[in-house]
# Entry
Amino acid sequence: MSRNGTSRPGTGTTDVVVIGAGHSGLAMSAWLSAHSIDHVVLERGEIANAWRHERWDSLRLLTPNWQTRLPDYRYDGDDPDGFMGSADVAQFISRYAGFIGATVRTGTTVRSVTRHGDMFHVCTEQRGWRCQAVVMANGAHGIAQVPALAAKLPASVRSLSAKDYRNPGRLDDAGVLIVGASATGLQLADEIAASGREVTLAVGEHIRMPRTYRGRDIQWWLTAAGILDQRFDQVDDLVRARRIPSPQLIGAPRSLDLNSLTARGVQLVGRLVGLEGNTAQFSGALRNECAMADLKLARMLDGFDALAVRQALDISAGPERFAATRVDETPRIGIDLAKRRIGTVIWATGFRPDYSWLREPVFDQKGRLRHHGGFVAPGLYALGLNFMRRRKSSFIHGAEDDVRDLGSHLVGWLKQSPASRASARMEMRAGI
# Structure
């Protein structure tokens, strides 16, 4: 058996199977190689597959290039303050695979993962693998979360998830309703409105955030304040923390907020709550949602100002504040899709990981993966999830610390005796 699980066709045996050859899976592969752990990396498509085939054309990272790094590898181009597009990210991850010498089995779709005694069985379309541990690094954006009421859309209205959307040129020449006003919804509304189409944006809870503050990128401030390094075991309500919407940012050196969109002609409505015939119904809480986002923004900036004074940071620009979100006195709570000539609804309502192949009792009543900072069950780990171990866990640069933590635990697990592993599994089952 050679490193990374190379063996004859049929059923192979290795120490660890890593599922997913994105940045998290490759970072774990680098850790395992450094500790001489036999493993195989399985990828359903190509390396960095989602970045190549499952993003809209103009998407860029919300983090600047200087923040893009993986273990022992970082951005070294001539535009540190720029933002990588999808193709650039795919190239960065592919170069990293070459840098660490990863042997990845591409075009290998996992069909099931089951535990049999002391081993896991990982079945793919081509072959099976027996291993002592599995790392699920297939990403947090496997499935677009489209609400059930999407089925009630009139047949004349096209329904797209944010994962299906590519560019305005592929849309019908008609109005567009975008549901969700976090980072994705905001960017799509901006791009589609620029194409000349009438855009309506349904806004619920959101996090307003400027691209820069006092001359520094907002990610610099979040790092300096220790916010991105905050651990999962340091928050009072972890469930809510993991569900907080992504901030309203764009991968460009400019801020984008709801005021920017209304200035462009985008109409704001509240959260979509129902569909009856041609009528879309919206919550009447739009003003409250926007006021709360403005309040939280002001509190965050107050904290940054206090940090600048407390640590005597070298910041030349003084404190600044942003205009309150402009909302109509009486926002619409109903729209006739036909009369408004809305031809497409885009669901920018978030994503969830795809673990449909995992045959283990590790899900809650709503089908969500139960884990403790990425530890799912004895010998079973997850990577790349939102606020998994730290607020930065879902970012590319967040993989470095998370892989170190989980990798150290995994190496220790492999060194345990069969009796110790059996005891750990019994304790886990007793806690279900």
Summary: The domain at 3-142+353-431 is CATH 3.50.50.60 (FAD/NAD(P)-binding domain).
